[in-house]
């Protein structure tokens, strides 16, 4: 039996699909709390180090925030692709030899 999903076409069967148990507001709220906690903790860690100017601290916060976003979102996507068998870091780097193909226009 197919579980109803929000994707089109609506009659598409998606085996293994499970709907979200939380609303989008709850998910965004949890994300903002985690990001805010990381930002405040980083700023508090940098504050006693008076060698950094405010601009340098804000730049550091920017890079920490971007890194956190990339690790969480891209890491989750990579785990999903590995689970689906579409991506394996070791296969990509160690076992697969590059295939040179000619592009035709």
Descriptive overview:
GO terms for molecular function: C-8 sterol isomerase activity; cholestenol delta-isomerase activity; steroid Delta-isomerase activity. The chain crosses the membrane at residues 28-47, 59-78. One of its GO terms (biological process) is sterol biosynthetic process. By secondary structure, the protein is mainly α. The N and C termini lie far apart (46 Å). It has three helices and no strands. Helix content is 58%, strand content 0%. The chain is elongated and about 60 Å long.
**How can the largest sheet be summarized?**
none
Rg measurement, Å: 21 Å
Shape: elongated
Cα-to-Cα separation, first versus last residue? 46 Å
DSSP helix fraction: 55-70%
Count of alpha and pi helical runs: 3
Give the overall pLDDT as a whole number: 76
Strand content: under 5%
The helix/strand class is: mainly alpha
Descriptive tags:
mainly alpha, 105 residues, elongated, 0% strand, 58% helix
Provide a concise account of the structure shown:
The protein is mostly helical. The protein is 58% helix and 0% strand. The chain is elongated and about 60 Å long.
């Amino acid at each position: 039996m197919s579980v109803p999903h929000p994707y089109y076409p609506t009659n598409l069967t998606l085996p293994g699909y499970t709907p979200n148990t939380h609303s989008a507001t709850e998910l965004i709220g949890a994300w903002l709390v985690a990001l805010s906690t990381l930002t405040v903790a980083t700023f508090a860690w940098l504050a006693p180090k008076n060698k950094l100017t405010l601009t340098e601290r804000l730049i550091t916060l920017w890079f920490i925030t971007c890194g956190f976003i990339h690790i969480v979102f891209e890491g989750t996507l990579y785990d999903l692709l590995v689970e689906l068998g579409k991506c394996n870091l070791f296969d990509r780097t160690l076992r697969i030899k590059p295939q040179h193909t000619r592009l035709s226009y």
